[in-house]
Amino acid sequence: MFQVNENYLKLPGSYLFSTIAKKVAAFTEANPEKKVIRLGIGDVTQPLAPVILEALHKAVDEMGKTETFRGYAPDLGYDFLRNAIVKNDYEERGCDIAADEIFVSDGAKSDSGNIQELFSADAKIAVCDPVYPVYVDSNVMAGRTGVYSEDTQTWSNVIYMPCTMENGFVPEFPKEAPQLIYLCLPNNPTGTTVTKAQLQEWVDYANRVGAVIIYDAAYEAYISEENVAHSVYECKGAKTCAIEIRSFSKNAGFTGVRLGFTVVPKELKCGDVSLNAMWARRHGTKFNGAPYIVQRAGEAVYSEAGKAQLKEQVAYYMKNAKAIKDGLKNAGYTVFGGVNAPYIWMKTPDQMTSWQFFDYLLENANVVGTPGSGFGPSGEGYFRLTAFGSYENTLAALERIQKL
Ligand SMILES: *Cc1c(COP(=O)(O)O)cnc(C)c1O
After folding, report:
1. What's the pLDDT at 351?
2. Ligand 1 contact, 255 CB (< 6 A)
3. pLDDT of residue 338
């Protein structure tokens, strides 16, 4: 009889979003006259910008003619896209990243889940708590995380770095040195970030202890403050210790289009083994390239018109973020985030647990958010609202919350 990968059996069920969906369905069934507003979604809602549509249409037409038809894309991405990334995301921010250090992919979720394959089976990982679940679960599947405790909701072989209002949501260096450190900045779910000086300390730490930072910069486009780094490579020494993962999902609305990339610098080595060469080998074996049509759409993101249109799209969501943050503050709540990310992270009032506040908000304001405890034990007592809804719905939701 065949045997399965038993590591999969260790995964606790991810009940967060299915529990939310069930609770909302039960509520709407019992209260059909009430209009529920969802501020829990982590997905964009604005349509693709005109310049992206134009690029997609043009590329589709090319695929219909013999002379311009394209088959398999180069494994690592088309040069037109990799060069646009180098110029716009790196050169213009003073980062020295070359096109052959860019690996184009179908998105940041796959890359952030797959990157752990490059490291040894016993590599110890460190994650922020609360955290984007992909980082931990992909390491569980690889058998790296030890035993799960229902009590503490933690894995025995994972280092958790609590990010709470007490430490300003800035993780502290762990007592025991990890081999891999996952940092998502600006952060999902807390909506907070760190200064460039604080990030530099993490880069210095990683170089000192010989760790690799997996830097998820999916929300880079939402940064509004001057002293926040857009790329980890703005920090000195990052090329010897950091892999950066980027996505077109949140800055350009590609959640359904699918495009991302990962940067693995050539200077990033273990002895004389190059992680860049290893990732190229992995990509070439397990991935057959992002679609030509989609890579052309990605190129359009970096055109002058693309930059202008997407700046507007990001500004639309950030107007929602500001409305939520200011509105909640005025109503007396303690709120974080919403300045460099489209997420608002609030403290639940009156010592309520995250789930108690979820129920309270659903029943009394008919507003849906996400319980912070679903992202890790240190998320207990917090609640996430997203700025990805429509402006009208966002304002309506706030009005209801303010009346509570
Ligand atoms: C949304 C998100 C991503 C983006 O994933 P894609 O696969 O590119 O859509 C990556 N990381 C975090 C933390 C996210 O919230």
Report:
1. 97
2. yes
3. 98
Token reading at 181? 């450190």
132 C-beta closer than 6 A to ligand 1: yes
Determine if ligand 1 sits within 6 Å of the CB of residue 108: yes
Ligand 1 centre to CA of 331 (Å) is 31
Collapse the DSSP code of 44 into the 3-class scheme (helix H, G, I; strand E, B; otherwise coil) and give the result: coil
Neighbours of 162 (CB within 10 A): 16
Ligand 1 atom closest to residue 107's alpha carbon, by position in its atom list? 8
Neighbours of 399 (CB within 10 A): 11
Mean pLDDT, the chain, integer: 97
Q: Is 375 in the pocket of ligand 1 (CB under 6 A)?
A: no
Distance between CA 171 and CA 185 in Å, rounded? 11
Read off the pLDDT band of 14 (50, 70, 90). Answer: confident
pTM beyond cutoff 0.85: yes
Q: Which atom of ligand 1 is nearest to the CA of 187?
A: 13
Asked if the model's pLDDT at residue 42 lies above 90, the reply is: no
| DSSP one-letter string for 184-248 | ESS-TTT-----HHHHHHHHHHHHHHT-EEEEE-TTGGG---TTS-SSGGGSTTGGGTEEEEEES
